[in-house]
Predict the 3D structure of the following.
Amino acid sequence: MTADIRFSAPGRINLIGEHTDYNQGFALPIALPDRTTVTFRPDGGDAVVVRSDREDGEVTIPLHTIPGDVTGWAAYVAGVVWSLRSSGHRVGGGTMHVASRVEMGSGLSSSAALECAVLGALSAAAGLRIHRTEQARIAQRAENDYVGAPTGLMDQLASLCGEPRQALLIDFRDDSVTPVPFDPAAAGLALLVVNSNAPHRHAGGEYAARRASCERAAAALGVGSLREVQDRGEAVLGGVADPVDARRARHILTENQRVADVVSALGRADFAAVGRLFDASHASMRDDFEITTDHVDLIADTAVRAGALGARMTGGGFGGCVIALVDVDRCDVVAETIRQTVVDAGFHPATVTRTHAAAGAGVETGS
C-alpha cells in the first residue's frame, strides 16, 4: 500500500511592506504557527480527489484541468495541479484531505498556505525537487491565472521560507529572501494579532484597482515599476498628473523606506522605533492607499491608546487583521480595551491572539 504523505504550510503575517510586492519593492513578513495540512495518498490515477475539513463533500480534479474547470475553494488545489503541469513537472493522481488552522478571509493568507501545502504534497509524491523560489512562483501562478486573484509573490515566499524567531526581508526585484532577527519576546514584548472578523476580499476589484493605479504611476514616470524611482524620493511624484495615482505611488515609496527602517531598528532591538513605523505605515495605508476601513482604523488607534508601541493593518486591506507590538504586562489590558471598544462602536467583536515567527512549509512526520 502506498504510504500517505503529509505536508503542511503556514499562513503569514506581514510586519510591514503592504502592496509593495507587485511594485518590485520590499516586504517583511513572518510565517505563523497556524498551518494548513494536506494528507495525500497517491493512487496512480488520472485525477486528484480532494476533501476539506471545512467543506462538505469532495471535488474531483482531473490532472489535465485548465482554468475555469474548478471554482470555489478547490480551485486553489486545481490551480496547483495545473501550474505544476504547466511548468513541466509530473503530477500523479490520488486522494487528498485538507485540514487548516489558518483563519480564512482575515488577511493571514490562508490561500497561500493551502497552495504551498498542496504543492509540497504533490511534489513529494512525484519525487520532485524544486527550489523554493520556483515553488513560490508555481503557487502564485495557480492563484493568479487559475483562481484569478492578482496577488504578488509575498504570501507564497513567506509560507515556504519562514523560520522561527526570524522575519523575512523579501526584495521583489529578484525575489531574494534574507532572514532578519525578530524575537520581541526576548525584549519582553508580544506581537498581538487582532482579527476584526470583517473578512477582506483581495480577489475583488479594489486590489486590482490599486495595482493598476501603481502601474499607471510608473508609466507616467517612464519606468517599468515604482522601484526604479525609489531613490529619487517623493519629489519625483510631481511627474504623476493624476492625484490619486500619485497618492498610491507615494504609499509605495514611503512604505519601502519604512521596511528598510524597520530592518534597521530590529538590528538594534529598537522596538519602540518599530512601533512608530507601524503607526506610520497604517496612516499611509489609510490616507494614501485607502485600503483600511473604519473598523480596522478603530482597532489600530485603540491599541495604541491602550499602550501598544504601535499598530497597523496587515494584508491586502478592506478588513482583515491588525497587528500590535505590546509589552507582555499590558497584553490583557490592550486586548480587553480593543474588544470592548469595537463592540461599543457597533462593529463585529474582535478576536485577539498572541503569535510569533514560526517555521515554513515542510513534510510532517508522526501521527
Notes: The CA atoms of residues 140 and 153 lie 6 Å apart. The two ends are 17 Å apart (CA to CA). The chain is about 40% helix and 20% strand. The longest helix spans residues 243-267.
